[in-house]
Structures are given as structure tokens and as C-alpha cells.
Amino acid sequence: MKAVLSAEWLKLRSVTSTYHAIGTAALTVVLGVVWTLYVSDLADKRGSLRAAAPEEGFLPLIQISLAVLGVLAITAEYATGTIRPSLTAVPRRGTLLLAKAGIVGAATFVAANFILLVTYCASRLIATGRQLGFNTTSFADDLPMLVASGLSVTALALVGLGLGAAIRSAAGAIVSVVALLFVLPGVVNYLPPPWNTRVATLLLPNLVPQIADQRLSSRLGDGFLPPWAALAVLVAYPLITLAIGYYQLTRRDA
Q: Is the pTM of this model over 0.70?
């Protein structure tokens, strides 16, 4: 297993798409600084201002960027035909997928948390002394949200990997991830109550604040999961998609 993990790590760091995906996610730091400077200027003019924290507002950029990394970790091999020698070297397909999941999960977890932490620190340093709504007094108060955000990025990257293994098409898997992250939350609003609230609490974008033990926005009514339940739902997403990907990987020829 150690050799398989080493091989998958070599594959991941030897392709330019990995650096493109992480680089796109890292744009959050720049955007966070620009956003903080902008709202700081408004706060100076108005006296006070409540604004979304940049590490929360730009979280979808990190999520979708690193989800693409997860998708390409396997669909690139199908596109180039290198999946065949990979399966020849590792005949047990479950072991191969598990190794990919371990490397993708570790890489995206480290990258996401580093980007989120740098964005958080940069924005708070700029906002020090300004009348901004996201200028909190304690890092400990914001830590649960930062951890939950990092976990959501890792989960979504693994969802991308599972969908890539199942669909075998980068475009199809990326569209599916986009639908999970952006389309379904909008569609759920049109469900009749109380189903709109019940379903909304289970969707990926709404799990992060619930894991951090925060209430959802008022438009979702009283829907709320305890942190442990929200975390369990978040973990279920990659587990289900990876299981589907494993099933398709073992049932179809390379």
C-alpha cells in the first residue's frame, strides 16, 4: 500500500492541473485582501459596516477549485489511457481508488486549511481597528468555522474523485459537482414547506455553519442539524460517491 500511495502522490504532483487548481483556490487570499480593503474603506466613510468574512464569502472558489483537482486525479488517466498501466500495476481496483482518495484527501485538506488560514489572518490584520462586522475578537470563536470549511473542501474533492471514477468524464463530473454545490440549493427553495427546509439542511453548502454550531439563514426557517449530525452528513457525501465510483470501476473495463 505504501508503494501505491507513493505512486499516486507522484502522479498528483507531476501534472500541471494540480498546480492550476491549487493556484486558483489560492486566489482567495488575494480576493480576501481586496474585499477587506474595499469594505474597510466603506466602513471609514460610514462609521461601521457589517460584511461577510472573506474566508466564508470566497469559500465556494476553494471548494470548486479543489473539487476539480479530485475529478482530474482519475479522469485525466482515462483521457490519456494511463489508467491501463495503473490497473496493471495495481490489479486490485479498490486499493487503487483508496490510495487516490488518501492522497487527494490529504493534499486538499492541507491546501484548503492553509489558504483559509492565510486569508483569515490577512483580512483580520487589515481590519484591525476598523468597524467591520467580521472583525471578531477571538480566533477561538472562528476556529470551528475554519475547520468546518476545510473539511467541506476535502469532502467535495473526494466527491469529485468518486464522481470522476463513476462517470469517467472530467466535464460530466465537474458539472455534477457544480450542480451539488450551486444548482441544488436553488432548486430546493421551490419545494413546498417543510420539505424545503428539511432538504436544505442536508445540502453541502449548508453543512459548514451547522458543523460550526451556527444557525442557518432565516430563509431556511428553523431547519438545523446538531454539529455531529451535520458532520455525519458531510462524511456521507464522499463515502457514497466513492462507493459508486468503486462499483463502476470494478464493473467496467478500463
A: yes
